[in-house]
Design a protein that fits this description.
By secondary structure, the chain is mostly helical. It is built from 4 helices and no strands. 9% of the residues are buried.
Length: 58
């Protein structure tokens, strides 16, 4: 949650990009905190495929 809070305080985020921001922060946090981070395909599944791997990795 702190990653989302920091991004929202520093950058203007449109409402339609909030899911992408949350997914990206979750991806980064899982890479930093766990030995087995989430895969991109898992995050795509969790968002109902509204956030693609291309958007997460850019």
């Amino acid at each position: 949650m702190s990653y989302v809070r920091i991004c929202l305080s520093l950058f203007p985020v449109r409402r339609d990009n909030l899911r992408l921001l949350g997914t990206t922060c979750l991806f980064i946090a899982s890479k930093m905190k766990t030995s087995a981070p989430f895969s991109i395909s898992t995050l795509e599944f969790y968002t109902g495929y509204t956030v693609t791997s291309q958007k997460i990795l850019v």
